């Protein structure tokens, strides 16, 4: 009898295939009328207990909401706290620290590269400005601007 009792009190949940086997099996033909009545009574009792537990849980959830309201806790505050905690937890992970370090290092390298590019461009402009071609171009522009100024002044002189 004790071996049978232990078999009925397995602690492992049913697996998918076990549930399918139990659902498709027809045990009613193996049960006596008395056993069927006992099982029906147990079924009604279990359903009543489940209903009672749901009611108790619902009452406890309402009480929880009341307490949170009295303490000034609301959904938005809870979300903020959860987000802050999650953000902090994430920042303390090894993966985040390594990623942050890598990106920071990459950012420093990019900044240095942009600085070098800027310096190189400035140097090129300086070299170009000192080249004979640019000097010649600059002189032509100055000559043209000067002659335009003279012509504009002369136009105003006639009037």
Give the strand tally. 0
Major sheet attributes: none
Strand content: under 5%
State the share of residues found in helices, binned by percent. over 70%
- What pattern of helices and strands is seen along the backbone? HHHHHH
Q: Return the structural class.
A: mainly alpha
Overall 3D shape:
elongated
Spans of at least 5 consecutive residues whose pLDDT stays below 50 are 1-6
Task: Describe it.
By secondary structure, the chain is mostly helical. Helices cover 84% and strands 0% of the residues. The protein has 6 helices and no strands. It has helices at 2-8, 16-24, 33-70, 75-91, 94-129, 132-157. The chain is elongated and about 125 Å long. The termini are far apart.
What features would you highlight for this structure?
elongated, mainly alpha, 6 helices, disordered N terminus, 0% strand, 159 residues
Q: Short description, anyone?
A:
84% of the residues lie in helices and 0% in strands. It has 159 residues and is an all-alpha fold.
Could you outline the blueprint of secondary structure elements for this entry?
Elements: H1 2-8, H2 16-24, H3 33-70, H4 75-91, H5 94-129, H6 132-157
């Amino acid at each position: 009898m004790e071996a049978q009792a232990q078999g009925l009190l397995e602690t492992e949940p049913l697996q998918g295939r076990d549930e399918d086997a139990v659902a498709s099996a027809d045990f009613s033909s193996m049960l006596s009328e008395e056993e069927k009545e006992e099982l029906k009574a147990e079924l009604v009792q279990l359903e009543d207990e489940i209903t009672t537990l749901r009611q108790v849980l619902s009452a406890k959830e309402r009480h929880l909401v009341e307490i949170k309201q009295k303490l000034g806790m609301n959904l938005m505050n809870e979300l903020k706290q959860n987000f802050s905690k999650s953000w902090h937890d994430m920042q303390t992970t090894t993966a985040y620290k390594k990623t942050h370090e890598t990106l920071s290092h990459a950012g420093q390298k990019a900044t240095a590269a942009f600085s070098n590019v800027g310096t190189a461009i400035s140097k090129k402009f300086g070299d170009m400005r000192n080249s004979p071609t640019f000097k010649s171009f600059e002189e032509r522009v100055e000559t043209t601007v000067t002659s335009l100024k003279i012509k504009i002044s002369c136009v105003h002189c006639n009037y």
